[in-house]
Design goal:
By secondary structure, the chain is mainly α. It has a domain at about 1-150. Helices cover about 80% and strands about 0% of the residues. Strands 1-2 form a two-stranded antiparallel sheet. A hairpin with a 2-residue loop joins strand 1 and strand 2 (about 50).
């Protein structure tokens, strides 16, 4: 987000290039194709700033545009010079030496302008490299900070998860103990009921046994009496 805002700010602050002041009175000019290219130029980002290959490609293209503009100016100048020379060949024979001097001066000024543009490009490349290095350093610092914060957050979440797990284990143990106690209580009550039924059955059997013994004794007594 910061790089996008910086690119927008750079585009908003862009000013037309100026022709080096080789000849007094030369005013600032603007090359539309170069201006549009610089305004619309977007550098591909990477983890630590901008992609070096993309920056180099953009700089090569910009240099080609400067070269094309310079060549166009030379072609236009030569064309105009040739046309003027053709039209005024007879009238300008006396001024040939002066014209040649002016041509040489113009060529020198053009070469000087090209040198200035190359120097400006080198300066711009150096500034971009410095800015990239700065952004790479800032990005690295930000990444380390985020990594540290993420580590702290992860440790905090681990601690909370461990604490929650311990609480769940305690609750599970309590629940299991309660269930086991309830089951044991139910089994105890069931055994008590079964024992009570067995006792009742034994009491009935004992009672029947006593009754049988009584009947046997009574029968034996009757036999002895008879």
């Amino acid at each position: 987000m910061e790089m996008q805002e910086k690119e927008k700010q750079d585009s908003a602050e862009y000013t037309p290039l100026e022709v080096p002041e080789v000849v007094p009175g030369v005013t600032a000019v603007d090359y539309p194709e170069i201006s549009d290219f610089l305004k619309n130029m977007k550098l591909k980002g990477s983890l630590f700033g901008f992609q070096k290959e993309d920056v180099f490609e953009k700089m090569q293209k910009l240099n080609s545009m400067y070269q094309a503009r310079a060549q166009q100016m030379r072609d236009q100048a030569r064309g105009q010079l040739g046309q003027v020379k053709k039209q005024h060949q007879e009238e300008l024979e006396a001024l040939k030496e002066q014209l040649e001097q002016e041509k040489a001066d113009f060529q020198a000024a053009l070469e000087e302008e090209q040198n200035q543009l190359k120097a400006a490009l080198e300066t711009e490349k150096a500034e971009i490299k410095e800015q990239l290095e700065k952004e790479r350093t800032e990005a690295k610092a930000q990444l380390e900070k985020e990594r540290e914060e993420a580590g702290k957050q992860l440790e905090k979440e681990r601690e909370e998860a461990r604490k929650q797990l311990d609480e769940e284990v305690v609750r599970a143990r309590i629940q299991i103990r309660r269930e086991m106690e309830a089951q044991l209580q139910e089994e105890t009550e069931q055994r008590n009921r079964e024992l009570a039924m067995v006792r009742e059955e034994m009491d009935r059997l004992i009672e029947r046994l006593h009754m049988l013994k009584s009947k046997v004794k009574a029968a034996e007594g009757e036999e002895q009496a008879g």
